[in-house]
Structure formats: C-alpha cells, structure tokens
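Page 47, continued from p. 46.
Same chain as before, 189 aa.
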Amino acid sequence: MRVISGIARGKRLKAPSGMNTRPITDMIKEALFNVIGSDIIETSFLDLFAGSGSVGIEALSRQASKVIMVDNSFEAIKIIKANIDNCGFIDGFEIHRNDVFKAIDLLHRKGARFDYIYVDPPFTCESIFPRVMQALDKADILAEKGLIIIRTPRKLVLKNGLNRIIRYRINEYGESVLNYYSLKEDTCK
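Result:
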C-alpha cells in the first residue's frame, strides 16, 4: 500500500494488523481519485472508518486543505499517526479516535461541512452500512456540491437515495463497490 500521487507520492503506508481492517487497494484508491480529479485541491475531506488513513493521506497528498480521519480503534489511530509522520505532513489534518456515529453528530453540531466524505465501514458488519448512510443523510455536514463515497461489498445493495442524498454513480472493483452520493437538487435550494 502506498501514496499514489501528489506531494507524498510513492511513500509506503502501514496497515493495522488483523482482519478488522481491510485496506483499500491501490487500484481502487486510484480509481476513486481519478473520479475526483483535480477538484480535490483546497477542499475539505472526511475519512470515516479511516483504518490506515490511506484515503485521507491520499487526499492530503493531492492538496486537500483540510482532512479529518476518524476511527475508533486505538491501533488504527497509532498506524494513521505513523503513516502521517512517514509522509512528512505537519498540518492540514486532524485524527480523531471516536465512534463514527458520535463523530458525525459532533461535526453536525459544530456546523462542519465537507466537500468529500469517504466511508469505509467493516465489511463484516453489513448492518452498519444503512445506519451510517442514515446518519449522514440526517446530519448536515455535506457541502452543497459535495460527494459521499461509500465502499461496500459487492453483494450489499444500498438504497439509491434517502431524504437528502441520491446515488448518481456506482463502480465495481472485484468484491468492492464504490457508491457515489450527492445532495438532491431540491435539498440545495
């Protein structure tokens, strides 16, 4: 696993041990950032269930101005910090050890807005996917033209839309799927 592009290009990244974290492959990460493209520059990026921090670090490397990475695992937070240090980043990021649902609520209460929200829950807990989508739909933390990208197992089918968000793109990569959601047009008015 490595940083694919940007300031920290080529830097190797560590992953937490065990089966609880399945890091995104370089191929899927590259495909994700090809969709985002240069629009990532000077944006805010939220990485939920951050694991190794690979996606948030990629956003930092590609010049996102603010990246927040959230995971509830002590080991994951330790690995994220080591990966950040290895890449030489000193600012533009925050690392939070917190339950994702509590973090979403806290960010909502603070009035935070993100241009990109990347969500990568554990594949072993399928019931968490609809819960996290409901929480993001309810919380007002997605910027007007922002995107929520959620990685799911291929066999799991998410709703096309909820009250405020709608899926506009889906890409399959082996056993993983990237689902892209944006705010519904009437939500932005």
